[in-house]
Amino acid sequence: MNIGFYCLSYKNKRRDVMENIFNTLQINAQFSIGVDFNDRRLHKIDDKLKRVWSTCYGHLDMIRSFYESDKDYGIFCEDDIIIRKDFMIELPHILCDFNTLELDILLLGYMCESEIDTYSSYPTWLKRDPFKYLHYPDDGTWGAQMYLLSRKHALCILSQYYYGYAEWSLVNSSIVPFSADWIITKTGKRALIYPPVAIEEFELVYDDKGQTRSHTACYRFCYKPELF
Question: Which of 221, 226, 225, 157 is nearest to 194 (CA)?
């Protein structure tokens, strides 16, 4: 498997934790320090946008590193996740399913508070115990905690969004926001794997109480001690 692993860890806030997780799984991951709020790409924008843009550019920078490498596939994640113990055992099968379905992007970790069938009538494209693969729409599924990209689609994302799109989104309200939840996870031929193989850690606190409730609910539903 010629796969590159990339982890966004802004100012290394949880790098040690993620390094331990990767070492346990025998994953050699490349860490990205993220995009500082003083980065020239974040100049002259409202402070409330800086966090969103910083995260999005952080993902795009990782995708660029992947595309400039010799890897055929890239797996990208944020540093506030835990990963299934059997992930590396299942990964060859996941990659095979990714190619069988001719996907551009596969969500490996995302927001999920209850059985996926309760969200919507997501069409199931493939079942392989213990997982199934479902297409997901533009709304209803959120999160870029962990995802798999093809090399071809990485170039599509970079070509469309890496230069100029963020600035254009400020003056054109008809295009989707410059956010990883939109310009990365909602592009190309896409699917999610259920149950997710990566979930956010439990002790997360957000400024918005609704976000805290939702993320906590996702952890409580998805976490199984025998798997993570």
Answer: 221
Higher pLDDT, 157 or 115: 157
Residue 21 token pair? 């997780």
**Closest listed residue to residue 193, CA positions, set 129, 119, 113:** 129
Cβ partners under 8 Å of residue 80, min gap 6: 14, 145, 200, 201, 204
What does pTM read for this prediction?
0.92
Where residue 207 falls among pLDDT bands split at 50, 70, 90? low
The number of C-alpha atoms within 13 Å of 93 and in the hemisphere containing its C-beta is 15
Q: What angle is formed at CA 224 by the lines to CA 221 and CA 228, rounded to 5 degrees? A: 120
Burial class of residue 163, CB neighbours in 10 A (0-12, 13-18, 19+): exposed
Beta bridge partners of 190: 105
Residue 78 neighbours by CB distance under 10 Å: 23
- The token duo for 165 is 């799109």
**The tokens of 169 are what?**
């989104």
d(CA 228, CA 224): 6
Q: Which domains does the chain show, CATH number per domain?
A: 3-222 (3.90.550)
